[in-house]
Amino acid sequence: MTFYSCFDGQGAVIARCQTHQEIEVLRRMGRPIVEVREMKNEEAIVCSLTSSPSDFNLDY
Questions:
Q1: Contacts (Cβ under 8 Å, ≥6 apart) of 25
Q2: pLDDT tens digits, residue range 26-39?
Q3: Residue 12: which residues within 8 A CB-CB, separation 6 or more?
Q4: N vs C: which end of the chain shows fewer Cβ within 10 Å?
């Protein structure tokens, strides 16, 4: 499973998503997503063990 981190213009993580569709929804909602990076395997494993990355997205 692939997870993505979304960053704002200052380089801060503003969301973690599982699909590009989730990223587009956040953009349409007005989130200032400047950069999207695929998470490393070890980062993605932590997300999948702790909870869904969408839990990090406070707008959902």
A1: none
A2: 999 999 999 999 98
A3: none
A4: N
